[in-house]
Design a protein that fits this description.
By secondary structure, the protein is of the alpha+beta class. The chain contains 8 helices and 5 strands.
Amino acid sequence: MTLSLPAAPLFGQPVPQHPHPELLRFLATRRSASAVTLAEPAPTASELDTLLRLAARVPDHGKLAPWRFIILEPAAKAVFADRLEALANSRGDARAAAKLGKLKIPPLGVAVVSRPRPGEIPEWEQLLSAGAVCTTLLYAAQALGYGANWITDWYAYDDEAKAILGLESEERVAGFIFLGTPKEPPQERERPDPAGLITAWRP
């Protein structure tokens, strides 16, 4: 797929707002691909740079950028998986070791790391911004024609696993976004009916 995007607007420059029906069509059938179906090719380095630029355009109260990215390229991701497997095995936790397939199989991964900043902006809003980064990265990759899956498993929460990844004490993994080309199209799953989730506030 040939990618041609407008340049990022300059600070203070007006950003025109207009309908994007093609985006609505995309959202109507958007579906994550299973991580274990993801194979080469993955996004190129140039494509990944573009995807991260798009992901960083999320709502961010206070303009704090309370998140960062850790790229897990194939060789480094294999080492990360080996160290996690050794950690799980050192604890006699075969179940945790078995869960590493979703990390091992995809050719490329991006850890979105939440790092709230102290100050006036509530931490909750900063965490939501990190979640928006994960969502936007997921959507952008799929819009580019790749498969993507947002994973949080034990190694997103385990303190020793986070240390292996290089996180600081105040940081946490908002999500691992795994990227590649799905070997088979994902099947639609059950979706909630919004009608049962809506109320109208009335004074």
